[in-house]
């Protein structure tokens, strides 16, 4: 799986309340939820965002609530992947379960500026900053987690398993 | 080999003799809690093509976040949950007005030492106050638990917190934990199990301990365990007849790090807007004008919190510039607070008392804030937009600090109320 997109850079401790505020948790359709992605943090998010773009952030991305809608809205908004120095643990699990690639690499985050063009190769475990022509390796993840992401999330993964 | 409580519980739950931090285990879940987001869990559960949940006795559902329903969408979600629960023969549904999940589960005797509990709420760590390994998960993970009764978990490293010293009057466990979070940071315990011990913890009531285990999540804790003792057993004796095992860390167990905190001279703490780890001694923020004061939540809506609040508020009036909202954590807390006369004190002082539940904690109803307004709250999160408009400022403090501030109309050191 190779993914290409431009970086949208944020800081540390981006919490689930600003990714998707509580007032939208009642929305059942993911597409409706997605329209409010990052609303309280970056009201202009959709002005610059193009499908496939990669969110690049500092430490503890997704801290706070267990609301899976945070991972869900990012995925349905079309975010290609999230590269962060670290993730809050519940968000990390939720993102994998939603099939949203989450990648840890402090070095890559430090070397990426807003709007840099990125290319991420999951099989090789490499993040390329195309703009700056720099390569970084991602923290390895257990194979079964990679399989869940590739399958598109836990539900499709379980279905694949039960049908094979 | 020597193990921590967290390692022992996860070993037991995954049918192994022992496990070590870093290992990934497939664990049997003892108890699965979900709240209003059960609607979403049940939707995902259906997509998993399973007809029935793995064990209807081990599932507890509490409607607390938006209760009574405040919009048609909420009402529809609640309706869907009630229908699902009936169909699946889940007996443990606590409907509108019973209280917050994190109060109901211990209060009704579901939580025992040594259990592995998961909940679709980050503050599930609260049950660690009884020596359980309890952690928050998302809705898809919960649907998987409902299907199989199992969940993969990485055995976390443990951080030890030795807390010693006597707290002065009107300094509460909330102040201790806010102080600690400010020292280790919002991700200081991410992916880690925390264990809290020492004479300060031993001397704390169950209510105080629950606040510690609850609020520890704001440092990222995966579990926040307090070793069970006589107080734990006395609490449980009244609530459950089920057997349980008392587990303790071995003396030479491996902690990633241990911290020593002497809290003797700790001042009341206030977490300033935006980040929970942004706590300062109250003296640094006194005088900040407030429009609202909130006493309640799964962190601090318990009887002990109300007792201290009533002690400070007795024969006083809330500032005319402040709306004070009181939310009991459960129906039992509410009833006891009536019996003890606390509710009368709150009402006479000018507070609004709403039904047990989450109240205004997550910015949906019962006291939503407008842009430019300022609140002091005994809840556990002060993120931007958490309690309403993104431009509202949220300060977090102990119940004592909240009511003292409500009386003065500005952030106030509760110890000034002793004069
Ligand atoms: S009181 Fe607040 S923090 Fe606690 S469960 Fe309810 S919404 Fe969550």
Describe the structure.
The complex is a heterodimer of chains A (164) and B (419). With 164 residues, chain A is an alpha/beta fold. Chain A has one domain (2-162): Aconitase, domain 4 (Alpha-Beta Barrel), CATH 3.20.19. Chain A contains eight helices and seven strands. Chain A has helices at residues 16-19, 30-34, 45-48, 69-77, 89-97, 106-110, 143-151, 154-163, and strands at 2-9, 54-57, 81-84, 102-104, 117-121, 126-129, 134-137. In chain A, strands 4-3-2-1-5-6-7 form a seven-stranded mixed beta sheet. The radius of gyration of chain A is 15 Å and the shape is globular. By secondary structure, chain B is α/β, with parallel strands linked by helices. Chain B contains 14 helices and 18 strands. In chain B, the strands form five sheets. Chain B has a five-stranded parallel beta sheet with strand order 4-3-2-5-6, with helices on both faces. Chain B has a five-stranded parallel beta sheet with strand order 16-15-14-17-18, covered by helices on one side. In chain B, strands 10-9-8-11 form a four-stranded parallel beta sheet. In chain B, a hairpin with a 7-residue loop joins β12 and β13 (279-281). In chain B, α2 packs across α5, α11 packs across α13 and α11 (303-313) runs parallel beside α14 (399-408). The longest helix of chain B is centred in the first third of the chain and has 16 residues, at 72-87. Chain B starts with a helix and ends in an 11-residue tail after the last helix. The A-B interface holds A 13, 15, 17-18, 21-23, 25-28, 40-41, 59-60, 63-69, 71, 86, 88-90, 93-94, 97-98, 142, 144, 153-155, 158-159, 162 and B 24, 37, 39-40, 43-44, 47-49, 66, 71, 73-74, 77, 119-122, 124, 136-141, 143-144, 147, 152, 186-187, 190-191, 220, 222, 275, 362-364, 381, 383-386, 390. The complex binds iron/sulfur cluster.
């Amino acid at each position: 799986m190779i993914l290409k997109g431009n970086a949208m850079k944020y800081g540390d401790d981006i919490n689930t309340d600003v990714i998707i505020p509580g007032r939208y948790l009642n929305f059942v359709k993911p597409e409706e939820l997605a329209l409010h992605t990052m609303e309280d943090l970056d009201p202009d998010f959709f002005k610059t965002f193009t499908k496939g773009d990669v969110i690049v952030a500092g430490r503890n991305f997704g801290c706070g609530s267990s609301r899976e809608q945070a991972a869900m809205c990012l995925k349905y908004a079309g975010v290609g992947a999230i590269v962060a120095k670290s993730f809050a643990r519940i968000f990390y699990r939720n993102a994998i379960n939603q099939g949203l690639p989450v990648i840890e690499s402090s070095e890559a985050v430090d070397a990426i500026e807003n709007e840099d063009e990125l290319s991420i190769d999951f099989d090789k475990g490499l993040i390329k900053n195309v703009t700056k022509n720099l390569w970084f390796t991602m923290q390895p993840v257990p194979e079964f987690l990679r399989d869940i992401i590739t399958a598109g999330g836990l539900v499709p993964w379980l279905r694949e398993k039960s049908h094979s | 080999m020597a193990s921590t409580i967290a390692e022992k519980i996860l070993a037991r739950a995954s049918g192994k003799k022992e496990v070590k931090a870093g290992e990934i285990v497939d664990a049997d879940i003892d108890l699965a809690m979900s709240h209003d987001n059960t609607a979403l869990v049940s939707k995902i559960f259906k997509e998993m093509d399973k007809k029935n949940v793995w064990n209807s006795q081990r599932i507890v559902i509490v409607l607390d976040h938006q209760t009574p329903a405040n919009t048609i969408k909420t009402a529809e979600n609640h309706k869907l949950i009630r229908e699902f629960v009936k169909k699946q023969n889940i007996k443990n549904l606590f409907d509108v007005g019973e209280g917050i999940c994190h109060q109901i589960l211990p209060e009704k005797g579901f939580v025992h030492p040594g259990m592995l509990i998961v909940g679709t709420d980050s503050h599930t760590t609260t049950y660690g106050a009884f020596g359980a390994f309890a952690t928050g998960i998302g809705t898809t993970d919960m649907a998987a638990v409902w299907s199989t009764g199992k969940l993969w978990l990485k055995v976390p490293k443990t951080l030890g917190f030795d807390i010693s010293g006597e707290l002065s009057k009107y300094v509460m466990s909330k102040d201790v934990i806010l102080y600690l979070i400010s020292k280790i940071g919002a991700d200081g315990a991410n992916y880690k199990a925390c264990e809290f011990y020492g004479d300060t913890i031993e001397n704390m009531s169950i209510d105080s301990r629950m606040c510690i285990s609850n609020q520890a999540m704001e440092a990222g804790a995966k579990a926040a365990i307090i070793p069970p003792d006589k107080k734990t057993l006395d609490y449980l004796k009244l609530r459950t007849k089920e057997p349980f095992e008392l587990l303790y860390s071995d003396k030479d167990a491996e902690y990633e790090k241990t911290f020593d905190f002497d809290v003797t001279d700790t001042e009341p703490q206030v977490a300033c807007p935006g980040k929970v780890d942004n706590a300062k001694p109250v003296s640094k923020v006194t005088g900040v004008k407030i429009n609202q004061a909130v006493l309640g939540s799964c962190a601090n809506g318990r009887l002990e919190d109300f007792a201290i609040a009533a002690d400070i508020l007795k024969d006083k009036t809330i500032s005319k510039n402040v709306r004070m909202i009181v939310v009991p954590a459960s129906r039992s807390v509410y009833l006891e607070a009536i019996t003890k006369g606390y509710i009368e004190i709150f009402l006479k002082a000018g507070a609004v008392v709403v039904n047990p539940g989450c109240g205004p904690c997550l910015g949906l109803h019962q006291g939503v804030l407008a842009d430019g307004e300022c609140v002091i709250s005994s809840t556990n999160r002060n993120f931007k937009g958490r309690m309403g408009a993104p431009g509202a400022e949220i300060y977090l403090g102990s119940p004592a600090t909240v009511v003292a501030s409500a009386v003065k109309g500005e952030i106030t050191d509760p110890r000034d109320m002793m004069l």
